[in-house]
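Deliverable D4.2, example record:
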Amino acid sequence: MSNATTLLRNIALTVCGLVILLAIVGVSYQAIETKADARRFPQKGRLIDVGGFRLNINCTGQGSPTVILETGLGGLAMAWRQVQPGIEEFTRVCSYDRAGYGWSDPGPMPRTSGQIAKELHTLLLNAGERGPYILVGHSSGGLDVRVYNGMYPGEVVGMVLVEATHEDTWREMPPDVRKWSEDQAKSFPRTLRFRALLISLGIARFMSRNETEESAHLILQPKYVNAVRSEYSNFEKSASEVRVAGTMGDKPLIVLTAGKDSADPEHLPKGITKEDLKEYGHVWIDELQVRESHLSTRGKRIMVPDSDHMIPNERPDAVISAVHEVWEAARSVQLPG
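Output generated by the structure prediction step:
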């Protein structure tokens, strides 16, 4: 073996050794900082075993029916921190972290609305939180609560859908918006897979080391990114589960729809025009959201003109008011024997 070949081999071995060493350091850094975060940000709620893994649930207040809060894609239980205190003033209310989110353990894959509904049912049972329930779903969480109602109709006496995703959202998009969304559906999971690697190696946490928000640290975990990726990738399966879940009969229902557009018309995705966004906004507000209000003979839609999609953050009072109205109406509903 020549001296040059030996030198190249030694350099390659050294580089590989350094890469392995850096990976070990990164993984150790991630583990140490995750434990430090657990001490710095105490858990809000309690961990309940739901069949080999645990979910975090935080229940406050007293009264019946109990209100169950379901976040949208990527939303932690703390997303309801401006809403839950208002609801607990008149009844029992629970927020929770889905499997892989926040303080909860990772759960079985794939993450579909049906799987999420089953886990929530077991969580409430094992936590001793008895029905009846009023379900509140924000964004894609609307799919989950509708499937829950279809699977356990005797437990549900009312619902509030907050800017909730409709099962036909992708089907009803304008052609150019749908094409862009399909491209995103292909690239986003790959982006999340790469982010999970960066988190595992401690790189993402190191780059976010100056963040002081609790949520910023809770999402810097591979379990969280993997759960979000699976929920996103299985949207169509969840949509199919919603389609067979049926309607709500005469249970009280309020649909909250944002009136403020959050899209930046000056920075549109490639291939998307302002006219495309306007058309999609019309489909969302005047068709899909209205259809959701027709899921019950006692359903109605309420516009929230001064909020965008994130109504729980921008207008928590609107959510609290809608929940209170449904709660008042639901107390007269008789559960099946």
